[in-house]
Amino acid sequence: MINKQVKSVTDAVADVFDGAVVMIGGFGEAGSPIELIHALIDQGASNLTVVSNNTGSGEVGLAALLKAERVSKIICSFPRTANSTVFPDLYRSGKTELELVPQGTLAERIRAGGAGIPGFYTPAAVGTPLAEGKESREFDGQEYLLERGLKADFALIKGRIADTFGNVIYNKTARNFGPPMAMAAKVAIVQVDEVVEPGQIDPENIVTPGIFVSRVVGVPSPVFESELVAAGVSYP
Questions:
Q1: Helix H or strand E segment including 41
Q2: Span 99-149, pLDDT tens digits
Q3: Cβ burial, residue 83 (10 Å; 0-12/13-18/19+)
Q4: CATH code at 199?
Q5: Which of 60, 112, 162, 187 could form a disulfide linkage to 168, CB 3.0–4.6 angstroms apart?
Q6: HSE-up of 72 (CA within 13 Å, CB side)?
Q7: Residue 75's closest CA among 165, 204, 221, 184?
Q8: Residue 57 falls within a domain, yes or no?
Q9: Which residues constitute the domain of residue 187?
Q10: In this structure, are residues 170 and 36 in contact, taking their beta carbons and an 8 Å threshold?
Q11: What domain count does the chain have?
């Protein structure tokens, strides 16, 4: 029997090392693992490459990690949203590098990485600046770009319920990038509202099987990014 539950978010991220590639789940606020990100800030790892959908909001969560200047490069689809006040200045000052990726391509690059697929061709971004430097090939009269699969050292993911074996279910759209990120990372760390014993989750409802999860940590009352931003909270 393998118990993957750890005592705290601090323990969960203790071995994240300088220079690591870290995938962070979330579609805006939905599915953003705020507590794990804050624990990573406290832990101190730096020079990180982050793969995420966006760059966070306000000065909490992913935005706070960026503000602390722990991220040297971010690979994302939406670097600028309504409350993304931190990243634009870091980008303009050259402190954080940006690799902009169309959202569907980002999802597929992560899925491909988790499936052991080194690359694939897509028509997305053909004829745009994002095509510069990329191999192209024609299939059936249409041009496609070669995109590489993405892998990570760690993934920080938010689920709703998990058992101690690491089987995870999510809360609706909070699932977003969680399942493919768990597959693409060497160490997938999942925070959940509730940790239950094996057998208490209907196998038919499991979205991410425990084989892809390394650690589970219970966060019974997770904070919400929008509430922290509205309150003007700045972490730490």
A1: helix 34-43
A2: 999 999 999 999 999 999 999 999 999 999 999 999 999 999 999 999 999
A3: middle
A4: 3.40.1080.10
A5: 162
A6: 9
A7: 184
A8: yes
A9: 17-124+135-230
A10: no
A11: 1
